[in-house]
Design brief:
By secondary structure, this protein is an alpha/beta fold. It is built from 19 helices and 26 strands. The radius of gyration is 25 Å and the shape is globular.
């Protein structure tokens, strides 16, 4: 269940056999290689140097390691960039983003597609049936470094093609975009311009289509690679390693190409990336927030249709955040077990040995920089391997009783027109997830339109466009539903629905939104009634024939109920959100175990896992059979137990 990322091309070949032997001795069973090796595989066009990779894969396989091979398309070599400058992406200011790091390509370039097909075909044909190969990783970290949306001439050409397929005629395009506004009407698809470098805000419908276009490009590009791999390596699985809090493309659509999803887990690094308060950042600086990694475990389990790996697990301090503290002792072990508790098939550490050169030399590995000596994180990984061996096979992950509907397009929509500066879709979803986890609840992520059958509680923090499939899924749901603000506020063309928000959901919720107020930091609107707290950031004014459970200070509806459907008409503060989620969980008859804010619980089959991110101990339930760990859960420790019948 443990793996590691390895770069044989970074180290003298004389070390490879020792590295492979030491991996196996540590308890490593899987090794990912090759995802950045294009310049070593093809140092000049048509001049291939595969012998080193042949030898590396043979050595790893003889040691008993199972190999995951990455396609090398994340790093086109310098000779290719020089020969084909049209593959280069452009930033929002219309400036080319040059060679010298990674991900220096645009998904829109036809030349890039041709070159990607060529190298993937060559690599897949050569290694597709290697005895040590068990799986493939396409590319590496789509979206990292803000590399989904590009604003260059190749993107404009491809965008025009996409629009012609979608709208057929300029008249339909003008109607969809509302181009009559500000005299933006077009007479031909050739008139389309990129939605950047405008005097003021570009047309939001154009921006949304531009985002959809790029998202579709990513999914199609990934499918192209998967189709080639399956032709030459039919008995091996395929994954892609997604990132944390990067929502610039629809991961579910890429997941449709894959056999399983994987993601790169850097819990401490993400504390700096997420919009926490400074107090929260300081509190979780050396452990991470208890829900950052689990949020993504549950998301990517859904993207992978029930299967996921952690392809890169942080093993110590990283190098890319504004501040990069050393994790507290025990945290690498805790993060590993937490991924396993959420259903990870493999947790793979990044990387085997800390690099002594180039951009990532301050990034920890399982071994100290340049040495054959385990780092503190490596020693913790070794302990996990021993614990896994002693426990044996673990039960399968079960379907949760709670579903959270997660929608990438809602992120794009709210970025395009936030209305309030601090309305962040990813933060809202994270806080709803956090509130449910504070009640000891397991959560499944569900894509919009997927079946909600069998879930006792459905959480919809925000879904700006409710299409026919999403509407049908919500209507068919038999559990209790809690829907958040801005849901149903736009149609597919970024228009306000004819019947006002929530559009097609109004029959289910029994309300319509008359107007919206965004509240700057420091302002709030008190809520009282069945649940209490404050509305912050976003507050809606409703007309409703539903039952009003809670009201704002002026008596307006804040929480309503029609049948099993609840609607919360604001961005809730921590107190109000906790109360609302507790209220609907109780209505859904789901058992609640309220835990301190530094403790989290997750079940896997008949096993329960408890994790302590804080500084104070916590007692696990008395009526249980301990499998791993102690009855008193110390800071940065975990316990595994079975509840007694």
């Amino acid at each position: 269940m443990l793996g590691v990322c390895y770069y044989p091309e970074h180290w003298d070949e004389a070390r490879w056999e020792t590295d492979a032997r030491r991996m196996v001795e540590l308890g490593i069973r899987f090794v990912r290689i090759g995802e950045f090796a294009w310049s070593r595989l093809e140092p000049a066009r048509g001049q291939f140097a595969f012998e080193w990779l042949d030898r590396a894969m043979d050595i790893l396989a003889r040691a008993g390691l199972k190999i995951v091979l990455g396609t090398p398309t994340a790093t086109p070599p310098k000779w290719l960039v020089d020969e084909c400058p049209d593959i280069i992406p452009y930033d929002k200011d219309g400036k080319p983003r040059g060679f010298g790091s990674r991900r220096h390509y645009t998904f829109s370039s036809e030349t890039w597609w041709k070159e990607s097909k060529r190298i993937v075909e060559i690599v897949a044909e050569r290694y597709g049936n290697h005895q040590g190969l068990v799986g493939w990783q396409t590319d590496n970290e789509y979206g990292c470094h803000d590399t989904i949306i590009s604003w260059g001439p190749e993107d404009l050409k491809a965008f025009k093609r996409w629009l012609r397929m979608r709208y057929q005629s300029p008249d339909q395009l003008n109607e969809a975009w509302g181009s009559v506004f500000w005299s933006m009407e077009l007479t031909s698809f050739d008139d389309v311009a990129l939605p950047n470098l405008t005097v003021t805000e570009p047309n939001p419908a154009t921006r949304l289509d531009f985002w959809r276009f790029h998202s579709d490009q990513v999914a199609a590009y990934d499918k192209m690679q998967c189709d080639i791999i399956r032709k030459h390596s039919p008995d091996r699985w395929i994954t892609h390693n997604f990132m944390g809090f990067i929502l610039d493309f629809d991961h579910f659509k890429v997941g449709d190409n894959l056999d399983l999803a994987s993601w790169d887990s850097y819990p401490i690094g993400f504390v700096e990336k997420f919009p926490f308060s400074e107090a929260e950042r300081n509190r979780w600086a050396e452990t991470s927030h208890p829900d950052i990694a689990p949020f993504h475990h549950d998301l990517y389990r859904a993207v992978g249709n029930g299967r996921f790996w952690v392809m890169e697990q942080q093993p110590g301090p990283v190098n890319w955040a504004p501040w990069n503290p050393v994790p507290k002792p025990g945290m690498v072990r805790l993060w590993t077990w937490e991924a396993i508790a959420h259903g990870a098939e493999v947790v793979s550490y990044f990387r085997w040995r800390q690099a002594t050169f180039a951009q990532e030399q301050m990034h920890a590995g399982l071994n100290l920089a340049g040495l054959d000596e385990l780092s503190p994180g490596g020693l913790e990984a070794q302990r996990v391997a021993q614990e896994l061996a002693s426990l044996g096979a673990l039960p399968d992950t079960r379907k949760a009783r709670v579903a959270l509907v997660f929608d990438y397009q809602s992120y794009w929509t709210t970025v395009i027109q936030p209305q309030g500066k601090d309305f962040r879709y990813e933060e809202l979803c994270f806080r709803w997830y956090e509130a449910a986890r504070r009640l000891g609840l397991d959560i499944d992520f569900v894509r919009p339109g997927a079946s909600l059958e069998g879930y006792d509680l459905v959480l919809v923090p925000c879904m700006t466009e409710v299409d026919e499939a999403a509407h049908a899924a919500l209507k068919a749901a038999t559990g209790t539903i809690l829907i958040g603000a801005r849901t149903g506020s736009r149609d597919r063309y970024f228009r306000i629905p004819d019947n006002l928000p929530p559009g097609s959901l109004s029959e289910m919720t029994g309300h319509r939104v008359i107007q919206v107020s965004t509240l700057r930091p420091g302002l709030s609107d008190p809520v009282s009634g069945a649940v209490a707290g404050n509305g912050i950031r976003w507050r809606e004014y409703l007309q409703t024939d539903a039952e009003v459970l809670s009201t704002f200070a002026n008596g307006d509806p804040a929480l309503t109920k029609k049948g099993s459907v609840h609607y919360l008409a604001c961005w809730p503060d921590e107190k109000l959100l906790a109360a609302a989620v507790r209220h609907v969980a109780t209505k859904a008859d789901i058992p609640i175990v309220e835990v301190p804010d530094h403790i989290r619980i997750r079940t896997r089959g008949d096993l329960s896992f408890a994790f302590n991110y804080g500084d104070s101990p916590w007692s696990i339930p008395a009526d249980c059979e301990r499998v791993l760990g102690e009855a008193i859960l110390a800071p940065q420790e975990l316990s595994v137990f079975r509840l007694k019948p």
